Amino acid sequence: MRTPLVAGNWKMHGRLDMARELAARIAAGAPHGVELALCPPYPYLGVLQQTLTGTPVALGAQNLAEQAEGAFTGEVAGEMLAEFGCRYVLVGHSERRSLYGETDAVVATKFQRAQAAGLVPVLCLGESQAEREAGQTDSVVGRQLDAVLETAGVAAFHQAVIAYEPVWAIGTGLTASPEQAQAVHAFIRQRLARQDAGVAAATRVLYGGSVKADNAASLLAEPDIDGGLIGGASLDADSFLAICQVASL
Ligand code: PGA
Description:
Elements: E1 5-9, H1 16-29, E2 35-39, H2 45-52, E3 57-61, H3 78-83, E4 86-91, H4 94-99, H5 104-116, E5 120-125, H6 129-133, H7 137-152, E6 161-164, H8 178-193, H9 197-202, E7 205-208, H10 213-220, E8 227-230, H11 237-248
Parallel strand pairs: 1-2, 1-8, 2-3, 3-4, 4-5, 5-6, 6-7, 7-8
Protein backbone atom coordinates (compact mmCIF):
# COMPACT_ATOMS: atom_id res chain seq x y z
CA MET A 1 0.00 0.00 0.00
CA ARG A 2 1.50 3.31 -1.09
CA THR A 3 0.50 6.28 1.07
CA PRO A 4 -0.27 9.15 -1.30
CA LEU A 5 1.97 12.20 -1.22
CA VAL A 6 0.93 15.67 -2.30
CA ALA A 7 3.80 18.12 -2.63
CA GLY A 8 3.53 21.84 -3.30
CA ASN A 9 6.17 23.40 -5.54
CA TRP A 10 5.95 27.12 -4.89
CA LYS A 11 8.66 27.96 -7.44
CA MET A 12 9.83 31.60 -7.13
CA HIS A 13 6.50 32.98 -5.96
CA GLY A 14 5.30 34.93 -2.98
CA ARG A 15 6.91 36.82 -0.16
CA LEU A 16 7.69 35.89 3.41
CA ASP A 17 4.29 36.86 4.80
CA MET A 18 2.53 34.76 2.21
CA ALA A 19 4.81 31.80 2.87
CA ARG A 20 4.14 31.94 6.61
CA GLU A 21 0.41 32.23 6.25
CA LEU A 22 0.10 29.64 3.52
CA ALA A 23 2.14 27.07 5.44
CA ALA A 24 0.19 27.67 8.65
CA ARG A 25 -3.17 27.34 6.90
CA ILE A 26 -2.12 24.18 5.09
CA ALA A 27 -0.78 22.64 8.31
CA ALA A 28 -4.01 23.48 10.12
CA GLY A 29 -6.17 21.88 7.43
CA ALA A 30 -4.05 18.82 6.58
CA PRO A 31 -6.28 15.75 6.20
CA HIS A 32 -5.32 12.29 7.46
CA GLY A 33 -4.39 9.48 5.13
CA VAL A 34 -2.11 11.51 2.87
CA GLU A 35 1.40 12.88 3.29
CA LEU A 36 1.92 16.55 2.55
CA ALA A 37 5.08 18.42 1.69
CA LEU A 38 5.79 22.05 0.85
CA CYS A 39 8.75 23.17 -1.23
CA PRO A 40 9.20 26.93 -0.73
CA PRO A 41 12.04 29.09 -2.06
CA TYR A 42 15.31 28.56 -0.14
CA PRO A 43 15.21 31.72 2.04
CA TYR A 44 11.88 30.69 3.58
CA LEU A 45 13.00 27.26 4.74
CA GLY A 46 14.09 28.45 8.18
CA VAL A 47 10.82 30.19 8.97
CA LEU A 48 8.76 27.35 7.58
CA GLN A 49 10.75 24.82 9.57
CA GLN A 50 9.44 26.60 12.68
CA THR A 51 5.90 26.81 11.31
CA LEU A 52 5.74 23.16 10.28
CA THR A 53 7.61 21.39 13.09
CA GLY A 54 5.13 19.23 14.96
CA THR A 55 2.61 19.37 12.12
CA PRO A 56 1.94 16.60 9.57
CA VAL A 57 3.40 18.72 6.76
CA ALA A 58 6.96 17.95 5.66
CA LEU A 59 9.37 20.47 4.24
CA GLY A 60 11.14 20.14 0.92
CA ALA A 61 13.42 22.19 -1.32
CA GLN A 62 13.20 22.79 -5.04
CA ASN A 63 16.81 22.09 -5.93
CA LEU A 64 20.24 21.32 -4.47
CA ALA A 65 23.85 21.60 -5.53
CA GLU A 66 25.66 18.81 -7.33
CA GLN A 67 28.49 19.12 -4.83
CA ALA A 68 28.61 18.57 -1.06
CA GLU A 69 30.47 21.81 -0.32
CA GLY A 70 33.09 24.17 -1.63
CA ALA A 71 33.61 27.25 -3.79
CA PHE A 72 30.29 27.17 -5.65
CA THR A 73 28.88 30.68 -5.35
CA GLY A 74 25.12 30.78 -5.20
CA GLU A 75 24.66 27.05 -4.68
CA VAL A 76 23.05 25.31 -1.69
CA ALA A 77 24.20 21.90 -0.46
CA GLY A 78 21.90 19.04 0.45
CA GLU A 79 23.37 18.93 3.94
CA MET A 80 22.30 22.55 4.45
CA LEU A 81 18.76 21.68 3.41
CA ALA A 82 18.75 18.78 5.87
CA GLU A 83 19.87 21.17 8.63
CA PHE A 84 16.77 23.25 7.96
CA GLY A 85 14.49 20.27 8.39
CA CYS A 86 13.97 19.33 4.76
CA ARG A 87 12.83 15.78 4.13
CA TYR A 88 12.36 16.07 0.36
CA VAL A 89 14.13 17.81 -2.49
CA LEU A 90 12.99 18.11 -6.10
CA VAL A 91 15.59 16.84 -8.55
CA GLY A 92 15.48 17.41 -12.29
CA HIS A 93 12.37 19.56 -12.46
CA SER A 94 11.75 20.39 -16.12
CA GLU A 95 12.47 24.09 -15.45
CA ARG A 96 15.89 23.10 -14.12
CA ARG A 97 16.49 20.89 -17.13
CA SER A 98 15.31 23.37 -19.78
CA LEU A 99 16.23 26.77 -18.29
CA TYR A 100 19.40 25.85 -16.40
CA GLY A 101 20.77 23.15 -18.65
CA GLU A 102 20.63 20.27 -16.21
CA THR A 103 21.48 17.13 -18.13
CA ASP A 104 20.47 13.59 -17.22
CA ALA A 105 23.96 13.14 -15.77
CA VAL A 106 23.67 16.24 -13.57
CA VAL A 107 20.25 15.11 -12.38
CA ALA A 108 21.63 11.67 -11.53
CA THR A 109 24.45 13.24 -9.51
CA LYS A 110 22.00 15.46 -7.65
CA PHE A 111 19.79 12.46 -6.90
CA GLN A 112 22.71 10.69 -5.25
CA ARG A 113 23.84 13.86 -3.49
CA ALA A 114 20.37 14.28 -2.02
CA GLN A 115 20.36 10.75 -0.63
CA ALA A 116 23.88 11.18 0.74
CA ALA A 117 22.54 14.17 2.70
CA GLY A 118 19.66 12.09 4.09
CA LEU A 119 17.04 13.72 1.85
CA VAL A 120 14.41 11.93 -0.21
CA PRO A 121 14.80 13.01 -3.84
CA VAL A 122 11.64 13.62 -5.87
CA LEU A 123 12.91 12.76 -9.32
CA CYS A 124 11.00 14.67 -12.00
CA LEU A 125 10.60 13.13 -15.44
CA GLY A 126 8.65 14.29 -18.47
CA GLU A 127 8.54 14.85 -22.19
CA SER A 128 8.03 18.06 -24.12
CA GLN A 129 5.12 18.69 -26.46
CA ALA A 130 7.29 18.05 -29.52
CA GLU A 131 8.55 14.80 -28.05
CA ARG A 132 5.02 13.61 -27.32
CA GLU A 133 3.87 14.52 -30.82
CA ALA A 134 6.83 12.61 -32.25
CA GLY A 135 5.80 9.52 -30.28
CA GLN A 136 8.89 9.74 -28.07
CA THR A 137 7.25 9.94 -24.64
CA ASP A 138 8.37 6.51 -23.46
CA SER A 139 11.87 6.83 -24.87
CA VAL A 140 12.43 10.25 -23.23
CA VAL A 141 10.99 9.27 -19.85
CA GLY A 142 12.81 5.93 -20.02
CA ARG A 143 16.11 7.65 -20.80
CA GLN A 144 15.68 10.13 -17.92
CA LEU A 145 14.89 7.30 -15.50
CA ASP A 146 17.66 5.03 -16.74
CA ALA A 147 20.27 7.75 -16.15
CA VAL A 148 19.47 7.59 -12.44
CA LEU A 149 19.01 3.81 -12.33
CA GLU A 150 22.43 3.33 -13.91
CA THR A 151 24.26 5.57 -11.47
CA ALA A 152 22.31 5.12 -8.24
CA GLY A 153 20.96 1.58 -8.72
CA VAL A 154 17.39 0.42 -8.35
CA ALA A 155 17.69 -0.10 -4.57
CA ALA A 156 18.11 3.67 -4.20
CA PHE A 157 14.43 4.01 -5.08
CA HIS A 158 13.53 2.60 -1.66
CA GLN A 159 14.23 6.17 -0.51
CA ALA A 160 12.99 8.18 -3.46
CA VAL A 161 9.83 9.46 -5.09
CA ILE A 162 9.23 9.90 -8.82
CA ALA A 163 7.13 12.67 -10.33
CA TYR A 164 5.90 12.41 -13.92
CA GLU A 165 5.42 15.93 -15.20
CA PRO A 166 4.76 16.30 -18.92
CA VAL A 167 6.43 19.60 -19.79
CA TRP A 168 3.50 20.68 -21.96
CA ALA A 169 1.16 20.43 -18.97
CA ILE A 170 3.22 22.49 -16.50
CA GLY A 171 1.67 25.88 -15.81
CA THR A 172 -0.29 25.74 -19.05
CA GLY A 173 -3.72 24.70 -17.84
CA LEU A 174 -3.40 21.65 -20.12
CA THR A 175 -3.52 18.47 -18.05
CA ALA A 176 -2.64 15.03 -19.27
CA SER A 177 -5.82 12.99 -19.37
CA PRO A 178 -6.03 10.36 -16.65
CA GLU A 179 -5.45 7.71 -19.35
CA GLN A 180 -2.39 9.49 -20.75
CA ALA A 181 -0.91 9.93 -17.29
CA GLN A 182 -1.70 6.38 -16.20
CA ALA A 183 -0.01 4.98 -19.30
CA VAL A 184 3.26 6.76 -18.49
CA HIS A 185 3.04 5.93 -14.78
CA ALA A 186 2.59 2.26 -15.65
CA PHE A 187 5.54 2.49 -18.03
CA ILE A 188 7.71 3.96 -15.25
CA ARG A 189 6.66 1.24 -12.82
CA GLN A 190 7.37 -1.48 -15.39
CA ARG A 191 10.80 -0.01 -15.99
CA LEU A 192 11.55 -0.29 -12.26
CA ALA A 193 10.02 -3.78 -12.15
CA ARG A 194 12.47 -5.04 -14.77
CA GLN A 195 15.11 -4.61 -12.07
CA ASP A 196 13.20 -5.06 -8.82
CA ALA A 197 9.51 -5.88 -8.53
CA GLY A 198 9.40 -4.94 -4.85
CA VAL A 199 10.82 -1.48 -5.48
CA ALA A 200 8.43 -1.00 -8.40
CA ALA A 201 5.43 -1.87 -6.23
CA ALA A 202 6.50 0.39 -3.36
CA THR A 203 7.76 3.51 -5.17
CA ARG A 204 5.39 6.45 -5.25
CA VAL A 205 4.93 8.01 -8.67
CA LEU A 206 3.30 11.46 -8.48
CA TYR A 207 1.66 13.28 -11.36
CA GLY A 208 2.34 16.98 -11.93
CA GLY A 209 1.13 19.44 -14.54
CA SER A 210 -1.83 21.77 -14.00
CA VAL A 211 -3.37 19.64 -11.25
CA LYS A 212 -6.31 21.53 -9.72
CA ALA A 213 -9.02 20.65 -7.26
CA ASP A 214 -11.43 19.87 -10.08
CA ASN A 215 -9.23 17.46 -12.04
CA ALA A 216 -7.42 15.80 -9.12
CA ALA A 217 -10.04 13.13 -8.47
CA SER A 218 -9.93 11.58 -11.94
CA LEU A 219 -6.11 11.60 -12.03
CA LEU A 220 -5.70 10.20 -8.53
CA ALA A 221 -8.23 7.45 -9.23
CA GLU A 222 -5.71 5.84 -11.61
CA PRO A 223 -3.98 2.83 -10.07
CA ASP A 224 -0.39 4.00 -10.66
CA ILE A 225 -0.86 7.67 -9.69
CA ASP A 226 0.18 7.99 -6.06
CA GLY A 227 -0.23 11.70 -5.47
CA GLY A 228 0.61 15.01 -7.04
CA LEU A 229 3.31 17.60 -7.49
CA ILE A 230 1.37 20.82 -7.46
CA GLY A 231 2.64 24.16 -8.76
CA GLY A 232 0.11 26.95 -9.26
CA ALA A 233 -2.63 25.42 -7.12
CA SER A 234 -0.25 25.07 -4.17
CA LEU A 235 -0.15 28.87 -3.81
CA ASP A 236 -3.72 28.90 -2.58
CA ALA A 237 -4.36 27.06 0.69
CA ASP A 238 -7.95 26.13 -0.14
CA SER A 239 -7.04 24.74 -3.57
CA PHE A 240 -4.07 22.80 -2.24
CA LEU A 241 -6.06 21.37 0.66
CA ALA A 242 -8.88 20.39 -1.67
CA ILE A 243 -6.39 18.35 -3.72
CA CYS A 244 -4.97 16.80 -0.52
CA GLN A 245 -8.50 15.92 0.56
CA VAL A 246 -9.13 14.11 -2.72
CA ALA A 247 -5.83 12.25 -2.37
CA SER A 248 -6.72 11.12 1.14
CA LEU A 249 -9.89 9.32 0.07
P1 PGA B 1 1.69 23.44 -12.24
O1 PGA B 1 3.25 23.10 -11.92
O2 PGA B 1 0.86 22.67 -11.26
O3 PGA B 1 1.58 24.93 -12.07
O4 PGA B 1 1.45 23.00 -13.65
C1 PGA B 1 3.67 21.81 -11.59
C2 PGA B 1 5.18 21.80 -11.39
O5 PGA B 1 5.90 22.46 -12.13
O6 PGA B 1 5.68 21.12 -10.48
